[in-house]
Amino acid sequence: MSTLATNAITDASGGNTATINGYTPTMSNMAGRNRIINGDMRIDQRNAGASVTPTNGQYLVDRFVYYSSQASKFTAQQNAGSVTPPAGFENYLGFTSTSAYSVSSSDYFLVTQIIEGLNVADLGWGTANAATVTLSFWVRSSLTGTFGGVLGNSGGSRSYPFVYTISVANTWEQKTVTIAGDTSGTWLKTNGAGITLYLGMGVGSTYSGTAGSWAGTLYLSATGATSVVGTNGATFYITGVQLEAGSVATPFEHRQYGQELALCQRYYQKSPTGFESWFYSIEQLGSGYGRSPIYFPVYMRAIPTISGLTFYRSTYNASGSQMISVAGFAPYLNGMTNSNYVTGWEASSEL
What we know:
By secondary structure, this protein is mainly β. Helices cover 3% and strands 38% of the residues. It has one helix and 25 strands. The protein has one helix at residues 257-265; strands spanning 6-10, 16-20, 26-27, 58-61, 64-68, 74-78, 93-97, 108-116, 133-141, 145-152, 159-166, 173-179, 193-203, 208-209, 221-222, 235-245, 268-270, 283-286, 289-291, 294-295, 305-312, 315-316, 328-329, 332-334, 341-348.
């Protein structure tokens, strides 16, 4: 029997990467090393792949939100432009600028993910034992040059601007940024906003800071970064976003689809189209009044906001208690009969 030749080194997650007869698989001993959720952009509960002209605070694909100081400057879409993603990926998030807009000092255009404090508490930020992290992602743009981003805290009092370079237009490139953990400031370790990742697509001087060091103020990008919004028709595509402990980027953590969907549903979920019969469960409260209890498939981060309620043979009674919890809700209905049920809803507990 032949002997396998191995040479193991420690990867950023604390596991081992072993070379076996020239083949190098990744064998991490730490599940869930990627603190970013839906980093491969495959879950899109809200838009189902449709193009949108996002407004400030609008989610594009799950867990990725768009912030902007000016309206109608981009269109955004899962798999915009139908380009081939990098090897190992099926989806990406794409932006296209709709004009040549010159940013003012206070302008900002951002794609953002807010990471829950419970998911980064072990990093120890705000203490002397703050862990180093590595951000990696794949990016493709019609523009070249220096681009910027930031890791920041919930209060906007701590920011780390960073830069990366896109060398070739319309070509996927993988970028890696290593950041020493912040030993100062307040970093939530609760179900609130822990660490926020901002990637700038045009940020003015007020919110741009010197790259490569921690600052005690709110920055959203790095000084001198390229403005995607400044060129009409410019594109910016991104996928494979990963934030992990350590100073080395490991291969992107591909979780099973059901796992990734459940992680997204902690923050947002909606009634599944075509499965309204799930929600037959009527509690009669009196003549013509009652409830239709609905149980979420995943407990949510916090008590959610319910919207988009639609019913069969009933109407929503806003004056009654809706009994909303992290586990589900029970809308108070008018005009009920034995064949009533809820046909649509959305629940959001985004950070």
